[in-house]
Each structure stands twice: as C-alpha cells, then as structure tokens.
Amino acid sequence: MTGHPAAAARFLDDAARAAWHDQSLWFMRQKRDRGSALPEWESLRFAGSALKAHAMSRLADLLEEFERRATANGVVVHWARDAREHNAIVLGILRTAHVTRVSKSKSMLTEECGLNPFLEAQGIEVVDTDLGERIVQLAGEAPSHIVIPAIHWKREEIGALFHRTMGTPAGETSPDALAAAARVHLRDALLHAGAGITGANALVAETGGVVVCTNEGNADLGMHSAPIHIACVGIEKIIATRDDLGVLLRLLARSGTGQPVTAYTTHVTAPRPGAAMHVVLVDNGRTARLADAAMRTALHCIRCGACLNTCPVYRRSGGYSYGTVIQGPIGAILAPAIDLDAHQALPYASTLCGSCVDVCPVRIDIPAQLLAWRARGAAAGRLPRGYGIVFEVLRRVLGTPATFARATRWARRVQRLVPAAWLSGRWNPWTRPGRALPVLADESFREWARRERNQP
Amino acid sequence: MTARDDVLAAIRAADVPAAPAASVPTAIVDRTDLHAAFLRVLTVVGGVGAVLSPGQSVPQLVSELLGAIGAQAVIVPGRFAVAENGAVYVDSDDVTARIAIVLAEHLVVVVPHAAIVPTMHEAVRLMPAESRCGWFLSGPSKTADIEQSLVFGAQGSRTHCVVFDIATGVG
What we know:
The complex is a heterodimer of chains A (about 450) and B (about 170). With about 450 residues, chain A is of the alpha/beta class. In chain A, about 55% of the residues lie in helices and about 10% in strands. Chain A has helices at about 5-15, 15-35, 40-55, 60-70, 85-95, 110-115, 115-120, 130-140, 155-165, 175-190, 220-225, 240-255, 285-290, 305-310, 310-315, 330-340, 355-360, 365-380, 385-400, 400-415, 420-425, 445-455; strands at about 75-80, 100-105, 125-130, 195-200, 200-205, 210-215, 230-235, 240, 265-270, 275-280. Chain A is globular, with a radius of gyration of 25 Å. The model of chain A has no long low-confidence stretch (mean pLDDT about 95). Chain B has helices at about 5-15, 35-45, 60-65, 100-105, 120-125, and strands at about 50, 75, 80, 85-90, 105-110, 115, 135, 140-145, 150, 160-165. Chain B is an alpha/beta fold and about 170 residues long. Helices cover about 25% and strands about 25% of the residues of chain B. Classes of the chains: A alpha/beta (about 450), B alpha/beta (about 170). At the A-B interface, helix 2, helix 3, helix 4, helix 8 and helix 10 of A face helix 1, helix 4, helix 5, strand 7 and strand 8 of B.
C-alpha cells in the first residue's frame, strides 16, 4: 500500500487516538447540525450554489469590476498565473518596503503556493497568527484541517510545545492559560510586523471589498497595525453583489463551526491613511479547472470544512493521510486535477456515502466528482496498484447473477472451513485488529426466498 | 501578454455557460422582538448587552453590565445590529483608528435602538456604500483551537458589550 491507504493505516495503528480524532470531528459536525437548524436552510444552500455558479459564469467581468473599484480606492491589484508568480509578487512588495518580518492570518492559498518556506528562504520571518496555525508552525508541521489546523493536537502536547517555545510553566495544560500565553506571544508578533498578510473569504465585485472572517481577530490585528496589508486570494473567491455576501455569510460559519457568524467579519475596500493595501489575484490551475465542465463546481468551495467534519474516512484517517494542502472530500477532488499520478488513490478515499454533499453549503456534488476522477484515473491507466485485479474479479463475479450466486456459496463454505483469524490476517487490507470480516449468513436471500416459497 | 491578460483570456476561453444571479431567499424569522432575539444570541456568542433605560447614561449602564472593567472600556458607535447572529456593524469612519476595534481589551458598541434588522440579508444592504472599512462584530475574540475548548479573549477584545441607545434611536 502507498498513498492515502498506507497513511490511513498508520493513523489507525494508534486506535485510541484515532477514536479521539473521530469524536472531535463528529463534535464539529454536531455543532454544524445545531447551527444550521434554520427553516430556510435548504433554500439558503440553493442560493449559495446559485451565487457561485453565477460568479463563475461572469468571472472575468467580476474580477475586472473588482479591480476597477479597488484601484479607484487606492488598492494595488496584482495578478499571478501560478504559485511562483504569486510568491515573487509578495516578495517584491516586501523587498521594496524593506520588510523582514510579516504576520500572516489563515490563508489556504498561501499554503498552496508554499509562501512561508519561500519567504523564509529569502530571510523573511513569517509568523502564522491563527492560534491553530501557530501551533503547527511552531511544531514544523502543516495544518491537518482547513478550519481547525491543530485538531490532531492534544492539550498536553500543546502545553509541552508552549513550554519549549513560549516558556509557559511545565505541565500547564489548561486551554485558558495556554491561549493567554499565545495571546501575548502573537500580539507581539502582530504589532511588530512590517506587513500583514491575510487571505480572503470573499471578494465582492459590487463593493470592491475584501472580506475576511476570523474568530480570534488576528487578521484585523495584522492588517490594521502593519504599514502594508497584502491579501492573497484565489480568483474563484469573487462574488457579484452584497446580497450574495449576505447569503455567503449566513452559510459559512454555521457550516464550519455552527456559529451564527464569526466573531469578526471585516469588509475592507481601501487602505487606512498612510498605509498600503495590495490584493494578489491568483490563478494557479483555477482557470484550467473552470474549463473542465464536469469538475468545475469544485471551484465553488467556500472552505468551511463541513465535508471534512462529516466524512467517515477523514475522521478515521486524519488530515495528513491525504498528503494535500486541502484535506478531506473536497481535497480529494481538488488534488487529482493538480497531479493525477501523485494523488491517484485519493478518489478512493471515500465510501461515496454522500454525507459531504448533504452538508456542503454550496451543494458541490463531491461524490459525483470522486467517481468521475476514478473513471479518469482508470482511463488514463493510473489505477492504484492492485486495484486493477480487484476490479476485474469484481466485474466477473458481479457481472452475472449466476456467477455471483456461485461465488457467495463458495465464500460461505470457505469461511466455515478456514480459521477466522486467518481470514482477517495481515494479508487482507480490509481488516485490522478489532475489525474482522463479518460472518456470512448461512444462506443467501435468494435461497431463503426459494425455501419460503416452497413451504406448504 | 501580462499575467492579467493571460488569466482573463483563460477565463473567457473556458466558456462557462451563463448562470442567472442568485435570488435572496426569504428568511423565516420571528420579527416581533428583534432586540430580545439579538440579546439572546449575543449571550450565546459570549457578549453582554442591554437596552438603555430612559434617563440612564451609557457609562452608567456599562458599569452595571461590566462592573469595574467598564471604566477601561473603549466605546465606539455602531451603525446597526443584526438579530440573527448578535452582530453589530461598526464603520471605520466612526472610530479613531481601525486597530482600536481589536486592540481594545473591553469594547462597548453603542447602537441606535431603532437600527436593528432580522438577518444578514437586510444587514448587507445597510453597509454604507462609501465605506472604506467596516466590521460585523459578534461577541468577543475567541478561539477553540486547543482541543475545541472555547476560550474568550483569544487575541482581540476580551469583553464585548452592546448598548442600545434610545436617545439616538429617534429618526
């Protein structure tokens, strides 16, 4: 095994931790269920889907409209074809202003572009200021969840990390005390940075506004204290109108954390007096995705994390098992477009149960795209190793009812003769300690029905 | 070709079929007492708030609500409140510095009593067209990044207080 199945198997080796992770995410899913209990929730989701489809259909016009308004307000708008150009633009802005220390609030785009390692190699210090992101940054890790980056960390481990890096007392594990230490640590970094980098949850063409949502207030501390604010944004984040923003804001936090709205929702259209504001619009594969009609709606994603929290596979395999910047079901349909060879196993990291599409605030049909990626992978001769043989066997067995009946009769006999421990042995990738093969019924449904019918 | 030209050309070449603008769904909400609904949600998101009584001053009510720390609070005007999520809209034109919103340890937002809407659908239409920066603030700064334990006062305000002022609510 390689890729996702191998990494998931390693994650599951620590059964207690895997169960804890599963429960933590399910707790998020339950908060989402309570938060989304609005009578008009389903019509809101339809509106969310419609506003995104509309924005994609007018993407070029809306970006130009945004640029026109933003430029008129004194914002400098940059365009980047790919990650390399994006990083070069950010570096250029920082170099011109002799900035050596920047703060950065949560931005999956800058993770995608590898901005941190790039800037650090140029001698610029980057402090991630979202608490969860700071935890994983101090530990030399990447986020394992797009909304809750350190969801895989336990408080004892965070306590030990903060003891080492922030000098909190040894053995301190209270979230209040640890968050208080982080507040001092992060405020210092935020207020002494030469530039504040943020992402954006939306760009509004009608207002020329950049919308940033946080609970901690770290994006605001960064963008309003430093002399330079740089917002790094994927082009698919644009929406047409303020009405669309209202719909989006009603959906976003409820889907992500179950909150009615985030503590801070900032709509910024112009730099403050004496400061500079830049917006970097990034393509990096998005226009190719837009041209791919079957997979286009993946661009509608508003990064709420609901599909991760509900996914039985994500909950039981952890964010790192995906090996991607965006994890979970949405990550499994985004990554193959970037590199089908590297991520050929990801479309299989799903039971196709459909829970992701049920919770998605913009109704992206993730299972349909997972299936379509499986088909493309197979057509391109890129099935994960061993899958080809399994599929051929399944095709023959399931292909005709007679073969299927013969195969199950045979399987029942084998299961009775062979020791259960052997059937659930290490050779069988579908079983693990504590997860044995279920015992097959003594007779099939057809056999039972025939017997019942023949009774007097 | 510049990057701008290339990206825009690639978008137009993608030839995405036209999709109509979204219509705003009708929110099904109880509009009888928006202030009570607002204050209920405000409590859930970790804030405190009240309606100013006739003859009562804002500092009086703030010290009633916050106690001794009320004296250190930064008081800013809010334009309007949103009942469904306990948010108040504050515009940068009304504050001395943008950073004050997050730097303040204890923030008090004074909102005209009449300026309240049921949902974000109405709220976004009230955002001033000429705004350079504005916030929807819903409760104090918070984090749940440590084992999902909710901690208030993550990086911004520790205390968040909303006062509905009847005197400014006229007109």
